[in-house]
Specification:
This protein is mainly α. It has six helices and no strands. It starts with 10 loop residues before the first helix and ends with a helix.
């Protein structure tokens, strides 16, 4: 579940989460001496208000993000094409690399049956060598 393997996930998404949790730190002194019940009520009210504030500005935020994305594409597309040319790659190869990275993260930490057989074989060879 690495952020790089989530399609459409960007750094700004993670920055938003960081800002939300950083802002919620202001609840600590207010809720410190409350009972468990009232602490949960205050935290819930805080995030309800945060949601209301964000949703009221959603259309503006989406429009600004769309304009920013178009500007980034316009300003950086020549640079991307230049670097791809230097590496003798095209856009399909770039998409393929992203797919390979996603597949790598999906299999990270997992061993295939072939790997397990190879490990068992090497262990048996080492055991055989120590017996002789």
């Amino acid at each position: 579940h690495h952020p790089n393997s989530i399609e459409g996930m960007g750094l700004e998404d993670l920055e938003t989460l960081e800002r939300v949790f950083s802002a919620s730190n202001s609840l600590a002194p207010v809720t410190r001496y409350m009972t468990r019940h009232w602490r949960r009520v205050f935290i819930d009210l805080y995030f309800q208000q945060w949601d209301n504030d964000k949703y009221s500005n959603l259309a503006t935020m989406l429009h600004q993000n769309y304009k920013q994305a178009l500007r980034i594409i316009e300003e950086n597309s020549n640079d991307v094409k230049h670097v791809l040319g230097l590496r003798h790659m095209d856009e399909e190869a770039l998409v393929s690399l992203i797919g390979n990275e996603w597949q790598y993260f999906q299999t990270l930490g997992k061993r295939s049956k072939g790997d397990l057989h190879a490990i068992a074989y090497v262990e048996l060879l080492e055991e055989y060598q120590t017996v002789e």
